[in-house]
Amino acid sequence: MGIIARFVEPHRIQPGRLSIDLGRVCPGSASESAYVSGITGAVDRYFWDCLEKEEAPRVSELARLIGLSRATLTERFHSATGSSPSDCLKARQIDASVALLINTDLSVAAIAYRLGFGTRRTFQRQFEARIGKSPAAFRETGRNVATAARQRRRRLLGKDE
Fold first, then answer.
1. Integer angstrom CA distances of residue 133 from 3, 5, 20, 23, 97
2. Does the residue 14 lie in any domain?
3. Whole-model pTM?
4. Integer Cα distance of 77 and 75 in angstroms
5. Residue-number span of the structural domain to which 122 is assigned
6. Into how many domains does the chain fold?
């Protein structure tokens, strides 16, 4: 089991094409929520598959696996969710980085590489834009909060040392 799978909940996809029907759905119809769940689920499965392989997630590859052009996927995804597949993949990368920053001693550069950001600087810019802190500052704050929560839980359970 890879380091990422130990600290972040993976969703697996079977090799080959993603199974999802991205045909037209009428807004407000009963099938619209199932459609949105299906399309975001496909992104999640693809993202976790990329993490397990330590490959950068790419919208063009996701579109290929689904069987659509990148432009069609982007159009349908935006229509269904209000955001782009690229933004969705970036959000998943940041979410995974949060867990790795708090739960591991991996360097910021190693996290950037493993999550497919390309460079440490690209990771830092995207992280700061979404979280409002540098990865290092977040790690320190997150670990302090996690440690305090563990200590509080231990006291409540009567396992104070």
1. 24, 25, 36, 40, 13
2. yes
3. 0.69
4. 6
5. 3-156
6. 1
